[in-house]
C-alpha cells in the first residue's frame, strides 16, 4: 500500500467506521473486484470477493458497485444480493429492490453511436464492441499492436466523417476506447450518493483502477477516502494506492474489522 496524500486520512476513516459511523463502500468492478479478462463476459470476481463483501454488508456497510459495464451484466457476474449497481459510468442505477433508473441521452447521438457500431463491425468483425447507455465501448484486448493502431485510425476516420458536430467524446479505458455522449459520469454518481447521505455520520471509500474512476475520486474529495488500484504509480486524485489483488483483499478485511467494532460500539 502506498499513501499518496494525507497519511492520517485512512486511519481516520477506519476509526470513524469503528466508532459506529455508517459505512458506504463504493467499488469499480473490472481491475478492482475482478481481474481483466480478454472476454469481459468471463470476468468473474476474485474467489474471495462475494463472501467478503457479503460479510461487510452484514456488518451494516452499504456496498455499491460503480462500473462502466451495463448494470445488468453484474447481476450475472457478481453473486451478491442486496448490492446497488451504478452502470454505464453512472448513467443507469439498479437498486437492490430491482428498481432501475436510466439516463436518457440525445436520440440523434444515440443513432450516431448505432451507425458507427454497425460500420465498424463490417470493417472489424472480430473486434468486441458493447453498446451501453449513451456510449459505445470498443475493446482492444487480444489485438496485436499494429491492429490496435489501425483500429484507432478507423475510429478517428468514422468520427471525422460522421460526427462533424462533436456530439461524441472519445475516452480511453484499460485496453480500449469509449465513444460517449456527453452526460453523467462516475463523479455524478458519487455526488448523488453523497447528497442522499446528507448530514449523516458516514465513513465513505471509493476503490477504482481506471481513468474513468478519477471523476469519482475528484467528486469524493475530502468527503471520503479515494483508493487507486494499480500495479504502477500514476498521476491521480486518489489518497491511497493498492498494488494488487492481495492489497485489495487486505484493505477490505481492515474495513470489515472496523465495521465489526462499529457494530459492537452500537450495541454497547
From TrEMBL:
Protein's job: Removes the phosphate from trehalose 6-phosphate to produce free trehalose.
Family: Belongs to the trehalose phosphatase family.
PANTHER family per UniProt: TREHALOSE 6-PHOSPHATE PHOSPHATASE (PTHR43768:SF3)
Keywords, sorted A to Z: Hydrolase, Magnesium, Metal-binding
EC number: 3.1.3.12
InterPro entries, per database record: HAD-like_sf (IPR036412), HAD_sf (IPR023214), OTSB-like (IPR044651), Trehalose_PPase (IPR003337)
BP terms from Gene Ontology: trehalose biosynthetic process
Protein name per its UniProtKB record: Trehalose 6-phosphate phosphatase
Reaction(s) this enzyme catalyzes, per UniProt: alpha,alpha-trehalose 6-phosphate + H2O = alpha,alpha-trehalose + phosphate
Required cofactor names: Mg(2+)
Keyword Membrane: no
Amino acid at each position: 500500500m502506498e499513501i499518496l496524500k494525507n497519511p492520517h486520512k485512512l486511519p481516520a476513516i477506519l476509526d470513524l467506521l469503528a466508532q459506529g459511523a455508517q459505512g458506504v463502500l463504493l467499488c469499480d468492478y473490472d481491475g478492482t473486484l475482478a481481474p481483466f479478462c480478454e472476454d469481459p463476459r468471463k470476468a468473474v470476481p476474485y474467489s474471495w470477493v462475494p463472501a467478503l463483501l457479503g460479510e461487510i454488508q452484514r456488518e451494516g456497510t452499504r456496498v455499491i458497485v460503480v462500473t462502466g459495464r451495463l448494470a445488468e451484466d453484474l447481476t450475472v457476474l457478481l453473486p451478491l444480493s442486496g448490492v446497488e449497481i451504478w452502470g454505464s459510468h453512472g448513467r443507469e442505477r439498479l437498486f437492490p429492490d430491482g428498481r432501475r433508473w436510466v439516463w436518457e441521452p440525445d436520440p440523434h447521438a444515440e443513432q450516431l453511436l448505432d451507425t458507427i457500431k454497425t460500420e465498424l463491425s463490417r470493417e472489424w468483425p472480430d473486434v468486441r464492441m458493447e453498446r451501453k447507455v449513451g456510449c459505445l465501448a470498443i475493446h482492444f484486448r487480444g489485438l496485436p499492436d499494429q491492429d490496435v493502431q489501425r483500429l484507432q485510425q478507423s475510429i478517428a476516420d468514422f468520427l471525422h466523417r460522421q460526427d462533424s458536430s462533436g456530439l461524441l467524446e472519445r475516452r480511453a479505458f484499460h485496453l480500449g476506447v469509449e465513444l460517449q455522449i456527453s452526460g453523467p459520469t462516475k463523479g455524478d454518481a458519487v455526488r448523488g450518493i453523497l447528497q442522499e447521505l446528507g448530514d449523516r455520520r458516514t465513513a465513505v471509500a471509493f476503490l477504482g483502477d481506471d481513468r474513468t474512476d478519477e471523476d469519482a475520486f475528484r467528486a469524493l474529495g475530502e468527503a471520503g477516502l479515494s483508493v487507486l488500484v494499480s500495479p504502477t504509480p500514476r498521476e491521480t486524485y486518489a489518497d491511497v494506492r493498492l498494488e494488487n489483488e492481495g492489497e485489495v483483499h487486505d484493505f477490505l478485511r481492515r474495513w470489515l474489522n472496523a465495521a465489526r467494532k462499529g457494530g459492537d460500539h452500537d450495541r454497547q
